[in-house]
Structure formats: C-alpha cells, structure tokens
Amino acid sequence: MPPGISNHISAQRGFTLMELVVVVLLIGVSFLLVPRYLFTGVSGADLKASSRDIAAGLRMARAEAVNSRRDTSLLIDLEKRRFSLSGKDAVRQLPEALELKLFTAQSEVVNDKQGAIRFFPDGSSSGGRVTVASGDRKYQVDVDWLTGKVTIAQ
Question: Domain residue spans in the chain?
C-alpha cells in the first residue's frame, strides 16, 4: 500500500438527503403557521379600502343632499362596523377586525355606538371625522363642515 493511505474508509461529513428534506419541510410549515399567530388584524390594503369605502359613502351622501335638495346623513354603526345612507336600505359592511371611531356634532350622535355626519342642500355639512384603524395603523376620513369636502389622511 502506498504511504499515507490507510485501510479504513473515513466517514463522510455533511447531511443526508433525508435530513435536508425534513429541515425544508419544517421551514415550510413554519412559514404557513407563524403569520396566523402573529398577525390577526386587517391587511394594509383592507384598511385603506375600508377608509376609501367610508369616504365614498360620505361623498355619495353629499351628492344626494345637493341633488335632492334635502338633508342627507351617512349613518355609522361603530359596534357592527357598518354604514348606510339615510333613507336607503343598502348597508355597507366593514371587516370585523377594524376599529372605528366617530367624531361628529353632538346633534348627530344617536348613542355611544352610533352616529352620523349630515350634509345639507348647499353642500356644507355638520363636519366630523371617522378614524379607521387596525393596531397602530390608521386612516382618518375628514369632512369639512363649511365645504363638505371629504379627505383621507394617514
């Protein structure tokens, strides 16, 4: 036998294919399960879409008031997370995980869970703000009392 070569076969270093497959499977399962436990709120897209829905409802209420020449309100139910135009049967439902807050004129407060923002035939309004939040992310839908203009701020 040539010098430097021994009779025994040295053990291979590294991982077997089975060990690698098990590790890949564990990583895959953790990627599927972990987000469900860490994130229980509303996605950023849903949060933005919900604030846009409220803004659209407010703009529709303003247009209805101007076109019909009578007061029109957007009624907001904070507890059930939904809103509707006064005099209309259609109700818009928002995601359950949202947090809603309403700041409006005292005359428009129905109770601690419901209120409205009213628009007048000249386009003005009672004014107010609807805050749509999920965790530390939030959007504020503001209504200017003088012009009735609806804006969304992050």
Answer: 44-153
Local structure of 142: helix, strand or coil: strand
Q: What is the DSSP string of 43-108?
A: -HHHHHHHHHHHHHHHHHHHHHHHHHTS-EEEEEETTTTEEEETT---EEE--TT-EEEEEE-GGG
Could you tell me which CATH class the domain 44-153 is placed in? alpha beta
Q: Supply the pTM of this predicted model.
A: 0.73
Q: How far is CA 109 from CA 39, 74, 113, in A?
A: 33, 12, 9
- Report whether pLDDT(10) > 60: no
* DSSP three-state, residue 119: strand
Q: Is the dihedral of CA 52, 55, 60, 61 positive or negative?
A: positive
